[in-house]
Amino acid sequence: MANTGKRIKTARETVDRKTEYSIDDAVKLVKASANAKFDESIEVAMNLGVDPRHADQMVRGVVSLPNGTGRTVRVAVFAKDAKAEEATKAGADIVGAEDLMEKIQGGFMDFDRVIATPDMMAVVGRLGKVLGPRGMMPNPKVGTVTPDVTKAVKDSKGGAVEFRVEKAGIVHAGVGKASFGEKAIAENVKAFLDAVAKAKPAGAKGTYIKKIAISSTMGPGVKIDTSAAGA
Fold this sequence. Notes:
Blueprint: H1 2-13, H2 23-33, E1 41-48, E2 60-64, E3 75-78, H3 81-90, E4 94-96, H4 98-105, E5 113-116, H5 121-124, H6 128-131, H7 149-158, E6 160-164, E7 170-177, H8 182-198, E8 209-216, E9 222-224
Parallel strand pairs: 3-4, 3-5
Antiparallel strand pairs: 1-7, 1-8, 2-6, 8-9
Helix pairs in contact: 2-8, 3-7
């Protein structure tokens, strides 16, 4: 435990908490401080100048990270007949209809993302109280309510990341693992920042992107210059 504390202290000392770094320099610092015995996740958090309680200030979307997330995503698909077969062939982990709804109502939650064909939304809608708070409710805006289940499953498995601003105006996402190369992490970070910048809502007033930070699971947060997101 003492070694862990020492490592974290050393990592924090290498980062100037007041400086806003370029993406490349921030990634270098984060990778250098990711010294845990497991493959730490890399996460980006952004403070936005929005109040998501207002519909015209909601920020949400999906971005395909060019180098994937480094984590295995378990995908559940609500579909019937030919579409159910299509989902299975595309690599979905769980496929079903009313039977899957009942299973989830009974407490089954062994999945990370839910996709549904449009005709299944009446069934999925009954799971709003379960899936909604977890941010898993299928939505056409982020491509998880779609007749093209093959593309949706492959995107989910291949590095598509959903983002949604939280109450305090913060949006965050995992953008890779510490074992990724610096270039791969930097490309993923840039893709995420660009997607959030493009998702700027009509009701946003003043400075849209206030602060950006990147960190590993156990490492210190490193600030990124907000101009990196075209703010």
